[in-house]
Hints:
This protein is α+β, with helices and mostly antiparallel strands. It has one domain: PH-domain like. The protein is 33% helix and 36% strand. The chain is built from two helices and seven strands, in the order E-H-E-E-E-E-E-E-H. It has a seven-stranded antiparallel sheet. Strand 5 (86-94) and strand 6 form a beta hairpin. It is globular, with a radius of gyration of 19 Å.
Amino acid sequence: xxxxxxxxxxxxxxxxSNENYSGLDDFGRTDFLRIYDKAKKSKTIKSVTxxxxxxxxxxxxxxxxxxxxxxxxxxxxxxEVSIPLIFSCGSLSEDxxxxxxxxxxxxxxxxxxxxxxxxxxxxEKIAEKLSEELNSKFARFAEQQLQTASRFWAPSFLRSMFLxxx
Length: 166
């Protein structure tokens, strides 16, 4: 395990793939619950209640550049996504179940379609801790990207400005 890895006990509810987010409020409870209920009914994701979640079956690893959901029993990856592809994330409580979602960046072919990773967390405090950890990773990743961009972009930009003025 990398030194910058955080782990959270989760239950992996599933992935809602290729969902049309056109016109939806990214942080809207009603919009999410409509998509969530539709996915449960179609068995795209498993249907769980706060009484039958199993927080011993999966672990969410927050690494410096990606998140990974690992099946504890088989030690296999159930889902993995790079930090730059996470469009947004958040949690809500529904019928005693704390649901945490990762809204994955739009598909290149159609910007209205995205995937949604859905996890269950043990409680709101864990959801807050996960949110804080993710905010830290997002900020650190953005800072690294800006530093990299400024190192490579500024000198060539300045050279072209200087050479262009001659």
